[in-house]
Amino acid sequence: MLVFRQLFDPASSTYSYLLGDLPSGEAVLIDPVLEQAQRDATLVRELGLTLLATLDTHVHADHITGAWALHHETSSMIMLAKESGAEGANRYLTQGDEVAFGTRRLLVRATPGHSNSCLTFVLDDHSMAFTGDCLLIRGNGRTDLQQGSPARLYHSVHSQIFSLPETCLLYPAHDYRGLTVTSVAEERRFNPRLGAGTSVTEFTSTMQNRQLAHPKLIDIAIPANLRCGRPEHEPASVS
Ligand SMILES: [Fe+2]
User: Fold this and answer.
1) Rounded to whole angstroms, how far apart are CA atoms 57 and 127?
2) Tens digit of pLDDT for each residue in 96-154?
3) Ligand 1 center from residue 35 Cα (angstroms)
């Protein structure tokens, strides 16, 4: 049986996702937030799960990952994309890798475009996928920071996400309007920038004409996330 919890950080509007396999009790947590690490560790314990790993979909610019704090608390492994250049992870992921927890697996797909190191994690039976900031609900992540590229994001969404079954549920890293989940069918039809036959040229021009404010925490979050959330004063070794 799959244990599945969608968790929310109100300060950054970030969703984290806990996936556990019963009866083995092995679990993974996608996109943990530093300020919620204690909440998440308590939940894992209360559910009788063992946190094998935290997985970050990318190097976030708007919050600090809870990966290091949870590693410290629960000995969970830290995993994120090899392309990230982050130091201190236990495992660096690339396209086609698999992350096993109990009898279940997450399949790793490279979906660059919001940043150069974005990953999407697809559950083994293709019933759900965790899209980070690549594909949001009726939207997508910005492409003007962190080696972002509209053309790469367009290609990632169409080749790696829209190619999943129409019924596949899609869970993003953020939503700012209170929506929690979407599906491949919904986004193919209703995503105003990427769905309904929009071309890469139209998408690129839309993204290039956006005027977005600099993320408030970017100067703090990116350096911290390139250390997987380890505070600067803590020693660098990961056991
Ligand atoms: Fe992001």
Assistant:
1) 18
2) 999 999 999 999 999 999 999 999 999 999 999 999 999 999 999 999 998 999 999 99
3) 17
Ligand 1 centroid from CA 24, angstroms: 32
User: Hey, what domains does the chain have and what are their CATH numbers?
Assistant: 2-211 (3.60.15.10)
Q: Quick one: CA torsion of 143, 144, 148, 152, rounded to 10 degrees?
A: 50
47's torsion region: left (phi>0), alpha (psi -120 to 50) or beta? alpha
- Altogether, the residues listed in the chain come to a count of 239
- In the reported structure, the alpha carbon of residue 1 is separated from the centroid of ligand 1 by a whole-number distance in angstroms of 31
